[in-house]
Amino acid sequence: MHSDDLVEDDTMAEQRKPPRDRRRAPGGRVVTLLLLLLAAFLCAVALGRFGGLERGQISSALIALTPYVTAGGGVLLLLALSLRRWLTALVVAMVTAVLAVSVVPRVLADEPSGVQGRSLNVLSANVYFGEADADRLVRLVRRNDVDVLSMPELNSGMVGELREAGLFDTLPYSVLAPEANGDGSGIVSRYPLRELSLASNTTMQQPSARIDLPGERDVQYVAAHPVVPVGGDTTAGWKREITSLPAPATDRSQPARILAGDFNATLDHAPLRKLLGRGYSDAAEVTGDGLTPTWPELGRPWAPPVTLDHVLVSGGTAVRDYRTFKVDGTDHRAVLAKLVVPS
Question: Acidic residues composition bias: which ranges (predicted)?
């Protein structure tokens, strides 16, 4: 046999060898499908968040979980990269980045303001159908030199307990609207109050008052408590009640305006974002505490903690400090904002 024949036989043998398999992504089609489903969920929450698609209890709850979904997007991105699903990883990276841009600023404190003026310490505590520990609440007021207190879900029984605990000795002025079934509310203050009607025609009481501060400038104050979005009808009312809250003060010639209470909304919900876009600042976000949860504190171990209680300020009001406190008997943490109202 000639050498040329040997070469030809070797060449034909090489051609007859089965082609080498391309390197496949690990996990196969099942893993690909699971990643696609998770990516679709991420995209749906982002669409709901930025599209303002709160339509009922489920969609509103999912949008409230945006910070958790954002963190989950980061984990999903690493998983997609490790499994070499490049297109899925690209989509997840873009959506997660957009969500992160809206979430991360909440943990970044603003530069300290040099505003000079009258200090005003504001505390809001949802008293949970009047079941909150009155003695604990009064101790919080005294230890933190609270000047104004909001109390969503106030009832007449709770008013009596607070009176016995000495609240009205410390904060002698009040605008109270106690009701049963969590519909009541109230404002108590160290300074004289004049009742206003800044948030009327709402499902639950949202009392408001003008606080007569020492000095030239007063404060208009609303104890906010929009209805809970548990269905189509209440969701529409929830949106209306948040967006119809009074506009912020735009300059120092007007009384400063403060909204404090249980908004039943996070900073990811469109109605609250719309209200903030009109000129309010969220006290927790200003101090870098915007992801500090305020609900739930009891009774719902399955519910991820979210931030439903807020202090919104306007009219040049500066935020010096922000903290939250546990109050026995209620499912919300109390929120404290130490403010400076410029003259």
Answer: 1-12
Count up the domains in the chain and report the number: 2
Listed residues 105, 123, 147: the one ending a domain: 105
Domain membership of residue 14 (yes or no) is no
Q: What is the pLDDT of residues 289-317, one digit of tens each?
A: 999 999 999 878 889 999 999 999 999 99
Residues 149 and 70 in one domain: no
Structure tokens at 234: 């209440």
Supply the CATH number for residue 222's domain: 3.60.10.10
Please check whether residues 181 and 72 belong to one and the same domain.
Answer: no
Per DSSP, helices labelled H in the chain are 3-16, 28-51, 57-64, 66-82, 86-103, 134-143, 156-165, 167-170, 232-243, 270-277, 283-286
Residue 200 shares a structural domain with residue 256: yes
DSSP 210-223: EE--SSS--EEEEE
Question: Considering the entire predicted model, what is its pTM?
Answer: 0.91
pLDDT tier at 16 (50, 70, 90 boundaries)? low
Q: Decide if pLDDT at 4 tops 70.
A: no
Residue 105, pLDDT > 90, answer yes
CA of residue 126 relative to chain centroid, distance:
15
Domain containing residue 92: 28-105
User: Quick one: tokens of 21?
Assistant: 């398999």
Cβ proximity of 106 and 285 under 8 Å: yes
